[in-house]
Amino acid sequence: MPESQPHGRLIVASNRIPVTLRHGEDGWSAEPSVGGLVTALAPVLRACGGVWVGWHGAVAEEGGAQISSLAGMLDVGFTLAPLALTAAQRDAFYLGFANETIWPLFHDLQARCTFAPAYWDAYRAVNHAFAAALAYHARPKDTIWVHDYHLMHVAHELRAGGAAAAVFFLHIPFPPPDIFLKLPWRAEVLRALLAYDRLGFQTRRDLRNFLQCVRTLLPDAALRSAPGGATVRLEGRTVHAGSYPIGIDARAFAGQASAPEVRARAEALRAAYAPGRIMLGVDRLDYTKGIVERLGAFRYALAHYPELHERLTFVQLVVPSRTDIPAYAELKAHIERLVSEINGQYSRPGWVPVHYLFRMLPLEELLAYYQAADIALITPLKDGMNLVAKEYAVCNRGDGALVLSEFAGAAAQLGRWALLVNPYDVVGCAVAIQRAFALEAQERRARIAAIRRVVAAQDVYWWVDTVLHGGETPPLRLVPPPTPRKPGVQAA
Ligand code: ADQ
Predict the structure, then answer these.
(1) If you take atom 37 of ligand 1, which residue's CA is the nearest one?
(2) CB within 8 Å of 308: residues ≥ 6 apart
(3) How far is the centre of ligand 1, averaged over its atoms, from the C-alpha of 172 (Å)?
(4) Residue 19 pairs with which residues in a beta bridge?
């Protein structure tokens, strides 16, 4: 657990406060939401009397003021400071600049970007509102910790008011200069990021990309390497930048996954798919997660490896997400079409090759799937980290195989023992599926044990501590990979 804050309280800002809203017959209700970030930050916030600032998720036109007071009254042990957005702000800031401009651009998918000046104006205005809320709550010795791509401009707005030290963590990748330079407001965004005191990225690759963009666009900035990363000196200020891979609450996941109810449910799932094995995909609905490409690879594997027929079932779980954005609605339709094509072509009596579930599962059910699955197929086109890979690693029965995209941030930590794939390479992915299916139990156990050690050592509490105290990422005790490379599957 993180140490108490040496510099005062912790004030957190993220796009959403950790609250789930529901609209029922009796109107709105709010309850605290759970998740890795909240679990890790809540004890720190409670210990120091901290504050969490963020949008509550509804818009002013739907009764935002009433919802703000509802959410603000929840007893979570620290102060929740909900912000309301107007419908126009939600559309241009959240759905627009955050999710139609920065999200695709930072995942290297610039063809999907909309570069609208009105989106940029809304982004600045909402970041200004966040900065005003933070300035209201923060005292001089507090540490402000701002999360993610929705709020890159907050420190720039705060600095005008001379507020407390601010740390920023980017949960998604940072693109290389070739891609970042497409952004019409590229220099403004870089300068805004450099208004923070410390910047955290998921991987060294993201950090390097950021530093290269600074070098390219801000010739007046002086870069120096420093423990755990680098410093950037600009306009008389020094900013620290480092890479801090986010973790999960590994112990809690492992404990919950071995509860008797979860084990019983996992057994029931295995019996339902027997005698075949289960290969699992778990994602939010998002084009960056590579679900369409993954289904293409599974189809290719079925066409070329008949031994998989009736012996391997692919279970793909998808959580609904951003369905208000047309690209996401189209993606859903595309996935459904592919699933039905594959099942139409390959199903046999008693065997349906793809089981597709489109809903948020209760945690116990998700854990039961993790435990039941023989293989996890995690192939994002690009991903900041990918927590599902880490959750699967600690929750499976101890002999699961992890097929992982080399473009997931998690590959930097776990790639040595996972079966690494290029998600765009249909043939390579199909080979990896077949290889994961055929891997000896002893080798699967050795690989997953090594992955578990990393996930347990660099858990979410380690991450909070490391980001907040600017510590250097400690060196890992490396275990050599159990087998050499094979064509199409990079094991190191
Ligand atoms: P996300 O893009 O949301 O996060 P990810 O890291 O994979 O992606 O986390 C998804 C979470 O949703 C997991 O904790 C998983 O358990 C949960 N989930 C997925 N499917 C589910 C289902 N069907 N039912 C219930 N729960 C489900 C962003 C970045 C990532 C980065 C994280 C954290 O895009 O790259 O890892 O932030 O920094």
Answers:
(1) 171
(2) 301, 302, 433, 434, 437
(3) 11
(4) 32
Which residue out of 171, 249, 283, 286 is catalytically annotated? 171
Burial label, 400 (beta-carbon count in 10 A; 0-12, 13-18, 19+) = buried
Tokens 């390219």 found at: 216
Residue 371, SS3?
helix
Q: How far is the CA of 382 from the centre of ligand 1 (A)?
A: 13
The answer to whether 433 and 298 are in contact (CB under 8 A) is yes
What is the amino acid identity at position 399? D
Ligand 1 pocket list (CB less than 6 A) = 171-172, 246, 282, 284, 317, 319, 360-361, 366, 383-388, 391
Relative to the CA of 318, which ligand 1 atom is closest? 23
Residues in the chain: 492
| Dihedral sign from CA coordinates of 161, 244, 170, 72 | negative
The alpha carbon of 140 and the centre of ligand 1 are apart by a number of angstroms equal to 34
The model's pTM is 0.93
212, 235 contact by CB (below 8 A): no
Q: Widest CA span of the chain, in angstroms?
A: 71
CA of 42 to the centre of ligand 1 (A): 19
Residues 6+ apart with CB under 8 A from 99: 322, 325
Q: Which residue has the tokens 């063809």?
A: 111
Cβ proximity of 278 and 270 under 8 Å: yes
Beta strands in 170-319 (DSSP E): 198-201, 222-226, 229-234, 237-243, 277-284, 312-319
The SS3 assignment for 335 reads: helix
Q: Please report, in angstroms and rounded to a whole number, the separation of the first and last CA atoms in the chain.
A: 32
Residue nearest ligand 1's atom 33 by CA: 171
Which tens digit of pLDDT belongs to each residue from 168-190? 999 999 999 999 999 999 999 99
Distance 388 CA to ligand 1 centre (A): 6
Active site annotation includes 355: no
Q: Which ranges in 323-457 belong to alpha helices (H)?
A: 326-346, 363-372, 387-395, 410-414, 426-438, 441-457
Whose Cα sits closest to atom 4 in ligand 1? 386
Backbone phi and psi for residue 358, each to the nearest 5 degrees, phi listed first: -110, 85
The pLDDT confidence band at residue 491, using thresholds 50, 70 and 90, is very low
- Give per-residue pLDDT as tens, 242-255: 999 999 999 999 99
The answer to whether 465 is a known catalytic residue is no
Q: Please, which pLDDT band fits residue 160 given cuts at 50, 70 and 90? A: confident
